[in-house]
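Figure S4 source data
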Amino acid sequence: NLLYRPTGLWCAQPRWSAEILNKSDHHCHLYEGKNNILIVRRAQEFQMTLQFNQPVNPSDNFQIEFYIGKTFLHISTNVQQGDACVVGITPSADAIIGKYYTSVAVIGSNGISRTQKDSGTDFYLLFNAWASNDEVYMPNEEERQEYVMNENGFIYEEESGDGRQWFYGQFVEGILDACFQILDDSHMPLVNRGDAVKVCRIGSAMMNSQDDRGVLVGNWSDDYSLGTAPTFWLGSDQILLQYVNKGPVSFAQCWVYAGTFNTFLRCLGIPARVITNFNSAHDNTGNIVTDLVFNSVGNQLELNERLTRDSIWNYHCWNEAYLSRLDLPADQNFGGWQVVDSTPQETSDGYYRCGPCSVKAIKEGMLGYQFDAPFVFAEVNSDVYKYKLNSQTGKTELLSVDTTYVGMKILTKSIGETNEPMDITETYKYPEGSSKDEETMRNAERTYKTHLQYDDEQGVAMTLEIPQERVKIGQNFQMAVVFRNLSEDTRTIHGFLVGSTIYYTNIQRAQFKQLTFDVTLKPMETSRIQVVVLAQNYMPKLGCQSNLRFVVTAKSMENNQDMTAIQIIVVNGPSLFEQMSGPAKVNQEIFVKVEFTNPFPFSLHDVRMAIQGPNFISYREKLYSEISTGASITWIESCVPTRSGNTMIYAVLDCSVLGNVQGNWAVSVQA
């Protein structure tokens, strides 16, 4: 097994020391399917054994060579001598991550002998959040366990903390190779793969297929016939494995991008988490404010979609990666959590990507530091300017400014075995109206010159009051339009209410309710108009994402004051119910039952269901051609748990008129 064997000292094939193959010292023991392949983290020693034909002397000249592509890995070593030589190897803290192959070269008087390439001595090198000199170092062990090692996550879709379970699966067999293939497919130079900032930036671009045939194809319509509906995915592992085998995967929306990107980052060793920003602005004009232009149609206002380039999504998901940011001035202390977003919204340096962007820089309004800080700032802290278009002159008149609507709440999963949300809004911005908040806005406006004066003392205040933020599907409910006359004059109000079903991006799907009303208010008087919303009106209009939006526009006839108010309600759809046949034990068969009842006044057709549980039940799908009104279905599957401890079972149901039906259950498996 030598390319050339001299007459003096020579080395047989090297091998990894047996104790390192369990990888636990490097926190790599959970990677599946790699039992005989070494996986280690940089800036931390690992050992290999070299068997020579005779004892090694200090004068003997040999070297261990580690190759990735055509590049050498430079290391420090600690050699214990003898004919069986144990070598301690410590990759540098900025070493290139990837898959290496190994050879040993002995230099003698007659030439160089080299061991042949052997896959048994290949190894993977990852970032190291446990090493204080690695740029991804995270000092808290509890946080490292959550943000590097935890395979189970929760992605929030409601401010109340409801959302969807997500299986990251960074240790599933094949995922590590998939993540390195993504870097290869990006044509990222090997020399840059030791830089976590550059890896995050490339990963942000490669998670979407917009301009580089990356992992996921976006789709914000109701037609998913050529792929999988975004609401049907249970986790990232199926997506990444499909990408390796077939190329770009259809379809994704923001939480799918964020969940899959989180897997990529954690798998490579970068601490990462998924973030949800509620009332998330999309600043298309680059002025760090959100501009909405309305047409005046009779006595009501309608959004001018041609002139309104900005938008506000009900929520938007992105990722945070934990990095030291050595590329930014050290005195600014912009390390720590960084925004990285792979949903294709705007281009950055020619590609659809975003970040890494320092969360601290966003909070301070320091928008001149790379990458993409103005766009992220607008997502969480832009003011909303509402304008009315004058159809005669073509000019716009400023109606109102809302400084609190955007970035209403920012959530991520709490640490540990819980789905409870952690409110991290204060990491992105100071309390509204505080002196620090005003300083932040001055810093941002100094760069982008966006400040406009606005006088909001016009006499009448209008609000929409809804007793609950969500309703159960099939439930009737009430809301109230409230007018308060703050002036000393009588005011006559003409108003118009529109109820619509919408996508989570705030785009209208269908209208289901219209109402006009007139109110006369005496000075300082308050009037309430009760509005009844019937389930029979909104249920037929619901799609895969169940949100209702109510928009009220009104005009005070005496002084032409225009008013607008918007309220969004989440409709909680049906759930899946699960039952197990008994206690779960390792290597013992158990049956899992999933049940669903159709609550709609119409049949559901071509209904897909899927179930998966890490180390419990492999991914499985089932198709039902029809589920009649009020009918129930029961799906029973056999499974054999393979690992003791706590795990999750994920289940989902989807069809063309109903999505986001989930069931998730925590399971404790006994040894």
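Figure S5 source data
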Amino acid sequence: MLTITKTNPLLIFLFVFLGSIIIEPVFCKGVVHNAPTECLIKDEIKELKPGIKLHTVQTTNNRGPIVAYVLEVDLANKNISIKAGLPDKDKIKVKDTLTNIVKSHRAFAGINANYFDVKAGNPLGTLIADNEWIVGPVYNRAALGISKDNEVFIDKVMLIGNVTVYRGFRKKELGMFFVDGLNIPYDFYKGVGLFTSNWGKELILPENKVARIVKGGRINKIEEDVLEIKIPSNGYALIAREDYVLDFLEKGDRLKIEWLREPDWSLVTEAISGGPYLLKEGMIFIDEKEENFRFSKNDTYAPRSAVGIGKNNNLFLIAVDGRNNNHSVGLSLYELADLLKKLEITDAINLDGGGSTTLVVEGKVVNKLSDRHERKISNGLLIFYK
């Protein structure tokens, strides 16, 4: 992340006698919003495994101290892999602490990831696990994708299901429609939502709406005037915002779905989402309006989680403490982006923060939790070492 330009006897002493710890002071300049014009960043680095380093970063601004914990991961190391982790691999409406998620997956480390419905527990935004799309994108928000070869991508992803309808013994092509929501709440899609068993066994049907239940590729049942529907394990439920879009469908119709992705992301096997963008190609790039975030909310000072890619193509998991005037006051998104840029991270996205911000390494929470206890979350980004 940060390079040592000359030999320092103190650094050598620390490296040898304090468990591979290096402290690098770095002077930085640059202003965004209320960030200071000059600052001293102290970066304490500890090598945990070959290819995995933990940085404890300390600095100050005109509001007080800032402490961040940065896990740097060498993606070229063949012993390292990265996955999206859920509390229950078969259900998304389950919450647990990140410590338990890391432990249940036998991961080396992890950070909290997607925003989620606090009450129901379902993650919001792109989520791919074990090469399966679990949740589709929401609000054009940025996501981080990982290939099986540890290639990392940050982009805004679109997922559309092109559904062709066939009817009768001769399978006559009857028409088509598009799905723009995969396992996301009714209010988050504009056209047709598709809900698989990953959502759960049941789904509450919005008032005055009709659900088409597909089982084994055929419309098995059409449900209306009910409060709750069953989602088959080998099928899905379709719910349109405007029922007329699916009015032509009948029981027994065959459906064939072709999923279209933009960008392609065919190599991506794992992905998590958050938002908004923080850095893009080395420049601060915060497009909270395009990603449907309220500026006033994101300009507040809070604990922050983020994930980024560095100049060296290493992956960085970042947790910033906050809401503690004596320890760390937290950052706005602009201050966070500025700090990451100074740490030579080139591309980054914000993740769920505040009380959700948690970084776990070797079974222990590294950061100081603002809630003083671990919040149950929907998923995490996990690091494995074999």
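Residues 333-342 form the longest helix (10 residues). The chain has four helices and 31 strands.
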